[in-house]
Please model this.
Amino acid sequence: AEYQNLFTRVQVDAPHYPGVPHEPRGIWQRGIKASTNYWLGKIGDAQVGPFYLGTTGVLSILFFILAFEIIGLNMLASVNWNPLQFVRQLFWLALEPPAPEYGLRLPPLAQGGWWLIAGFFLTLSVILWWIRTYALARKLKMGTHTAWAFASAIWLF
Model:
């Protein structure tokens, strides 16, 4: 009989794996060195990094942060900038879409305009991340099946 545990008692410490070699284009390179995390090593591989974001990855993260900020600040404004009420009512707060009377026009910011802007930035972020996934797969001469699976999830988004 062999005793098995979900958590690894022995952590292997080896030289960091630098990742699949690639030809960097432009100004973005794989500059962050790898490190290890003790708690990640408890459940699997302890290595964190190296990361390669590229232009589309950086833009995707930037647009996601922008959408997140728009949503969060509008929710905070709806409780009169009270952080305690924000935490208390977090699950009931929402950024509401524009009313049907506006049709395809851009509504005022307070009546759904922020919802349209946040949705635009969030959609742009997700599409840019898909472009990054597809481009990295092509650059590393790998299959693009992950990118197409992600695209099918985006279609449902």
Q: What stands out?
A: The beta strands are 35-36, 47-48.
